[in-house]
Amino acid sequence: MAIKYQGHTAKSLALLGLFPLIAKKLVEVYRVKRVLRGFRKPARFDYNVVVIGGGSAGLVSAYICATLKAKVALVEKQRMGGDCLNTGCVPSKALIRSARLLSDARRAPEFGFQRATIEFEFADVMARVQRVIRQVAPHDSVERYTALGVECVAGAARIVSPYEVQVGERVLTTRNIIVATGAQPNIPAIPGLEQVNYRTSDTVWELRERPRRLLVLGGGPIGCELAQSFARLGSEVTLVQRGGQLLPAEDPEIAALVLQRFIDEGLRVLLQHNAQHFEHDGNEDVLVCSTHSGSRRIAFDVVLLALGRKANVSGFGLEELGVRESPTGTLETDEFQRTRIPNIYACGDVAGPYQFTHVAAHQAWYCAVNALFAPLKKFRVDYRVIPWATFTDPEVARVGLNEHDARARNIAYEVTSYALDDLDRAITDSEAHGVIKVLTQPGSDKILGATIVGSHAGEIITEFVSAMKHGFGMNKILGTLHIYPTFSEANKYVAGGWKKAHAPQGLLRVLQRLHGWRRGGK
């Protein structure tokens, strides 16, 4: 009887252990019903999911839903591919590549040539940018996604209920909605801006005549990438940054390497300059800035606004449904990418907190599978390992913590660095500059973060991304065979630096005595 009683008790305890999970599920069901109360739920739905926005996040969401054999509609009011294809990643990298060719030509003596000259027309360079966009466009096209099983609907979407999306005269009924409406350049409220010739990262691609004097307002990734490219293409570039360093998310010594390259290439960089107003002075436009030492006037022909991007959260019905915004101006979502209305999800730039194409795709997976399988199964979005790169020359790439972040979060760390001017491949390529900087947990080879500034940084960083994602540390990087001579060898060398700093000194002294004894010494 005692054994039977103990078994009964064990089962009872097991059931009690399940109670919190059951209670949590019941609370979730009640919350969903309470939020959706008052909205008429159709008896049947046209779609499992309607995706609003044909940029990176929307395309991946629709692709996953179609791959999982759900019926999905993708609504896009302008151009498939969104910002990344049409005004962001693709055109900017095409421009950077063309500008890099000119920079390499000017460096001809470094490579053993007396001189190299390239004749070009700015309009032809910008035409190439458009050719690249057209070449990539089929990857994001209506034709491709239709073939994949996605119904592509052209027009402006309006969410009229949690189950209905109106496009023109047509109303699409759906079990779930994924909002992937992206972001747009932030236009600052600077007096006089409307009276001057300004461009944004959306409209700069319309230029066909090279600006003689280009003013770039903002020293973040977009401003830095475009400022350097236009300078290499022959514009007189002035970059104005309100803060005390370029790339403010990076550690100061990393940003300083980029700043020094800009100065070496003839860019005029003005830090701690706060834009006050624009004015028209005679025949030229002028920006008036305040500085620590007073006022400064900067004349220009075109000003490029690179002051970040704001999420497209309004104009398609979410306000009327009570969907809230976060303090940063994005749509407020939970750990499953749901908005306040549990069958409306959001991903990409409109959801934040990162505005990267690869993060948009990452979030899109969670939106798609959660929309299709909740409440049976839900997945919490994983932000533990998020890499990014700024494609200046030198490139800056990062994953995880840097020193600035670690100190702000009071996280203990150790730093190991390797200077790329010592790397054989960097020397052969005349790219012997930059550094790899890795943060590890004290007393462990666990990687907390890595920053690379130098040639090919955006490619080299991947090994650290994999290490952090899959839980291996500096010892395994050191024990991995790397091809010689490559830039990726630098990862092995920085791991070697970590190992040397953590070598067992007591054991090494014993080995020293052993080797001496084997030589016949005392």
Total domains: 4
CATH topology of the largest domain: FAD/NAD(P)-binding domain
CATH architecture descriptor of the largest domain? 3-Layer(bba) Sandwich
CATH superfamily of the largest domain: FAD/NAD(P)-binding domain
* Counted beta strands: 22
Low-confidence runs (pLDDT<50, min 5 residues)?
A: 1-5
Shape: globular
The percentage helix is 25-40%
Summed up:
It is built from 17 helices and 22 strands.
How would you describe this protein?
The chain is of the alpha/beta class and 522 residues long. The chain folds into four domains: 1-37; 44-80 and 141-185 and 309-385, FAD/NAD(P)-binding domain (3-Layer(bba) Sandwich), CATH 3.50.50; 193-308, FAD/NAD(P)-binding domain (3-Layer(bba) Sandwich); 394-505, FAD/NAD-linked reductase, C-terminal dimerisation domain (Enolase-like, domain 1, 2-Layer Sandwich). It contains 17 helices and 22 strands. It has helices at residues 2-36, 56-67, 82-86, 89-106, 122-136, 142-147, 221-232, 252-264, 318-321, 357-373, 403-408, 424-428, 457-460, 462-470, 474-478, 489-501, 505-518; strands at 47-52, 72-76, 150-154, 157-161, 164-167, 170-179, 183-185, 198-200, 213-217, 236-241, 268-271, 274-281, 284-291, 294-300, 302-305, 309-311, 344-346, 387-390, 395-400, 414-419, 435-440, 447-454. Strands 1, 2, 3, 4, 5, 6 and 17 form a seven-stranded mixed β-sheet that branches. A five-stranded parallel β-sheet has the order 8-15-9-10-11, with helices on one face. Helix 2 links the parallel strand 1 (47-52) and strand 2 (72-76). Helix 2 (56-67) runs parallel beside helix 10 (357-373), helix 4 crosses helix 5 (122-136) and helix 4 crosses helix 7. The relative contact order is 0.10. The model is unreliable at 1-5 (pLDDT under 50).
